[in-house]
Structure formats: C-alpha cells, structure tokens
Amino acid sequence: MKPSPITATIDFEKDGVQHGFLKLPHSHDGSAWGSIMIPVACIKQGVGPTALLTGGNHGDEYEGPLAILDLASRLKAEEVSGRVILVPGMNYPAVKAGTRTSPIDRGNLNRSFPGRPDGSVTEKIADYFQRVLLPLADLVCDVHSGGKTLDFVPFAAAHILPDKAQQARCVAAMEAFAAPYSMMLLEIDAVGMYDTAAEEMGKTFVSTELGGGGTARAATVAIARRGLKNLLVHAGILEGEVEAAQSVKLDMPDGSCYITSEVTGLLEMALDLGEVVRKGEVVARIRSFERTGAAPVELRAECDGILAGRHFPGLISAGDTVAVIGVPV
Ligand code: ZN
User: Fold this and answer.
1) What is the residue-averaged pLDDT of the chain?
2) Residue 119 sits in which domain range?
3) Domain final residue pick, 234, 250, 266
4) Which residues, in sequence order, are bridge partners of residue 258?
C-alpha cells in the first residue's frame, strides 16, 4: 500500500515534550498548496508503555478536546515513564466546523476505518491512525460525547471481545477511568469504527460517552480529566494512585436497549437521564405538531434499566434513536 500522505512535524521517538502537527496536504480553492494541520503532542521519557489519547473523532463533542488540550499543556516529560501521544481533534476539519462529520467530504471518521492513503480527506486521517499511530500504542482512549443530537449519562465503555484476556484488560482500563457509569457497550454499527480497528490490533481500548448536546459541562469535563489521568496511572505511565470514584456498572444485553422512532414530531421525554425505567413503561411520547386533538405516539421500554442516553433536540425524525436503556449489573 502507498505510504500515508500525512507527515508529523514532531518525532514520536524523541524524549521530551513536543507540540506539533499531523500535516495533511489539501489543495483547495482557498489554498492551492495548502495543508490541514491537525494538532498533536507527544510527551515521552525513557522506555515504557505508550498511551494514545484522542478527542474530536466527531467534531461536535467537547469533553475530549478540552481535557486533552489541558493535559497536553500540563504534562511534563519528567513525570512520564513511556510515552503519551495526544490528538485533541482527530477529525480536525469537523472540529473546526463544530460538526459531527467533515465539511470537506462529509466523512464520519468513526465509520471510515481502516481508511485509505489515496482516499478522501477523512479516509486519509483514518489510514494514518490505522497504520502509524495505533501500532505505536499499548493503551488507546477515544473520548466521545453525544454531540449535538444525543445526550448520555457520563460513562466509560468497553466491548465484548472474542479474546477474553484482551476484554479483561479493556474492562480494567474502563474501571480505572472511573466515570460515574461503566458500560459494556453493544454498538449499533461497529463496521468502520476506530474502536474496532484498535481492538482488532489487540490494543487495550476504552471509549466514553460523557454527555452531549453539542456542549460540555463543568462536571463532564472534570470526569474526562480525572479519567485520562487515571488511565495514565493505571498504565504505569504516571506515578501515583488511581483516583477512585463510584461507578454504576451497566450492560446492554441486546438490541432492545435501543428505542428507535418510527415517526416524526416533537419529542417529549417521560423521564430524564439516569432515571429508572421498567419494561413496558413509557419512555417518550412523540407528538405531531401538525394538528390538535391527535394522541401522541408512545414509546415503551423493552427492558428494565436506567435511561442512559437520549435524543437531544426537541424535534425528532423517523429512524432517530430516541433512547438507550442501560441495564444495571
Ligand atoms: Zn462520537
């Protein structure tokens, strides 16, 4: 395969603190010989494990970029045994635009793996992570939130994996992150995900959903900061103790945890995030705004659990995920 067109302006093998860019040539109307400059930091000392910490895989999720930028400006090489690679805005064009997908090619980076060196801008970014950055890492954490269209109780997540020893490593890292909730996550669509790419390489992988609505809250940014620091301690890269916190374990046994709307209208949630719901209870009503006198469409839970995620905007369309139920273990 062709080499990646992306070059790093820093040397990942060099000790010390380096701030630079992943430089992706992009010729367009505004800059004939231009490049997309994706910020990257590398903090390294001596021999030890490598952690790859990322945010902005989706451009409208903010806890990851905020916590990673903060960490990048604070971390000193003397504190580190091994290496920390920080990319606060993976899909940088999307981060700049504040959108989930790239405004250049509409690419959803988290559905673009393994990517292509000769593909679209988003596919080129995916390919660089697939073939250059992921192979350097032992521990990978990709910080997500709900973005503009979803909101979640703050959770760190691991997946059910065929390799149970690897799954145990991922679960231990998820627990070290110490988010208020820890979720064994069933993906709706795992094909093309960064998660899947990292897991298929045998990496210890943690993802999160820390909030949403296209903003970040004081509490959720604090959870992200604590979680990333805890992961570095857990990996043996930073000295100290993991800062423990109460975490409710959640499971998603099957697809009935997802409630999908079959109609379009105004969304009225019957309960809020974190509240308990029983099988058969109304989770949400969708009201037609086209006339008065019509009964709302009621959406009911198909399992017992808590409301772990919800559609965020007030308007909802057929096919949108209305709610995600997490089952406390
Ligand atoms: Zn996301």
Assistant:
1) 97
2) 7-250
3) 250
4) 324
Q: Is residue 57 part of a domain?
A: yes
Q: What is the whole-number distance in angstroms between the Cα of residue 147 and the centre of ligand 1?
A: 7
CA of 126 to the centre of ligand 1 (A): 15
The one-letter amino acid at 1: M
How many Å apart are CA 272 and CA 269, to the nearest integer? 7
* Average pLDDT rounded to a whole number, residues 256-265: 96
Q: Are residues 209 and 309 in the same domain?
A: no
Convert the pLDDT of each residue in 82-120 to its tens digit: 999 999 999 999 999 999 999 999 999 999 999 999 999
Across the range 3-24, mean pLDDT stands at 98
At which residue do the structure tokens 């990996």 appear?
A: 235
Q: Residue 144 C-alpha to ligand 1 middle, in angstroms?
A: 4
Last residue of a domain, one of 250, 266, 297: 250
Does the pLDDT at position 190 exceed 90? no
The alpha helices in the chain, defined as continuous H runs, are: 63-74, 92-97, 121-128, 134-136, 164-177, 194-200, 218-234
Residue pointed to by tokens 């604590």: 226
Q: Is the peptide bond before 313 cis (omega within 30 degrees of 0)?
A: no
Q: How far is the CA of 291 from the centre of ligand 1 (A)?
A: 36
Residue 277, pLDDT > 90, answer: yes
HEC assignment per residue over 88-138:
CCCCHHHHHHCCCCCCCCCCCHHHCCCCCCCCCHHHHHHHHHHHHHHHHCC
Tokens coding 283: 């989770």
Residues 55 and 219: their CA atoms lie apart, in Å, by 17
> What percent of the chain has pLDDT above 90?
96
CA dist., res. 86 & res. 17, Å (int): 11
pLDDT single digits (tens) 40-71: 999 999 999 999 999 999 999 999 999 999 99
Distance CA 64, CA 89 (A): 8
Q: Give the Å distance between the CA of 224 and the centre of ligand 1.
A: 14
State CA 313 to chain mean position distance: 20
